[in-house]
Amino acid sequence: MNLAAVHAAVAAPLDALDEAGVRWCVIHGEPALSRAAGDIHLLVHRNDLPVLRICVARAGGFAPLPAWGRGSHRFFIGFDVGDGLWVKLDVATKLSFGPHQELPTPAANALLARTTRSDGVAVPAPADSFWALLLHRVLDRGSVRAQDADRLADLAAAAEGAASPLADVVAATGVAGGPEWFVAAARDRRWGEMLRSAVRLRAGWPGTGPVRRAARMLTSRVLRRAGGWPLHALTRGPSLALVGGDATVRSAIVEWLESSWPAPVRTVHVTRGAVGRPALALVDQLRGRLVVIEGAELAARPAVDEVVQLDPGRDVTALERAVTEVVWRPWARRLMRKIPAEGEMS
């Protein structure tokens, strides 16, 4: 993957990480780099996370999102106006596996110390890439997609007999055949056998036991369920009034926002005579949400942050992107209000 071929929305923050001396690599999801679609997973040294937060905000306009119950993962979201798509950075400072990161490893720093460059992009050593992807699919996802199957089969040759901190973790589980069995299974494309090995991997995972894993999973579930509460309680989300245009166009824009916006969306349909304290109170109470209001009567009210007058002759797709940009920019600035200004970073 050549850095020149990386999508501009991603290349700028990655370049900024290099300039700031951040220790990072793309742990998996390299195909998303060129089209900026889907999550881009980065592994970053724990001590460099504060600098990364500043770099992605300044260089790419990425704003942090809540990540309660996600272990060491931190999420940063940006909107690419040109392509009309959201770009999400999933940044982890530890290598943990399982749906709730209940299977930790001490391998993160060792893996970062072994990273290589593939046409300018920091990536794990080939053997480390094999194990990181294999454990992600087997323990996190419980499935192997076609593109991942091809990549695992290709990487199996590099992993055969090669040292890796993740191979050491697999060896410590005591699974029959050890790491060599997994390399051979990937080489021979025995995906069903490999996926069934998840039970044995979990049972023997070093440093954890059933009670500790259950506690981690329960804590994660509780935090994820309550994860949006601090944002909703402390930060009023943006409010948008859609004025004019055809009702079909307004509905299309609302559906676009509901399906793509990276936080909860609430639509308020306002008709003449229904404007007043109840509607305004609703806007004020829906903290942390994007509130979309259909009705010109609310457009001049102080509770409305942004007003978009819909041009009936404009393409719906162009309107969707324009509306998203209008409401995203102030919301992102609000989320990034604690990012130091240029020159304040030591």
Give your account of this protein's structure.
A hairpin with a 2-residue loop joins strand 8 (116-118) and strand 9 (121-123). The chain has helices at residues 8-19, 32-35, 49-60, 108-113, 126-141, 146-159, 165-172, 178-187, 191-196, 198-203, 210-226, 229-234, 247-260, 277-285, 316-335, and strands spanning 24-28, 39-44, 63-65, 74-80, 85-92, 96-97, 103-104, 116-118, 121-123, 239-243, 265-269, 290-294, 306-309. It is built from 15 helices and 13 strands. It is of the alpha/beta class.
The overall pLDDT, averaged over residues, is 83
Q: Provide a count of the helices.
A: 15
End-to-end C-alpha gap: 32 Å
| Coarse structural class | alpha/beta
H and E order: HEHEHEEEEEHEEHHHHHHHHEHEHEEH
Basic shape: elongated
Which key phrases capture this entry?
single chain, 346 residues, alpha/beta, Rossmann fold, 2 domains, five-stranded mixed sheet, four-stranded parallel sheet, elongated
Please summarize what this structure is.
The protein is α/β, with parallel strands linked by helices. The chain has 15 helices and 13 strands. It has helices at residues 8-19, 32-35, 49-60, 108-113, 126-141, 146-159, 165-172, 178-187, 191-196, 198-203, 210-226, 229-234, 247-260, 277-285, 316-335, and strands at 24-28, 39-44, 63-65, 74-80, 85-92, 96-97, 103-104, 116-118, 121-123, 239-243, 265-269, 290-294, 306-309.
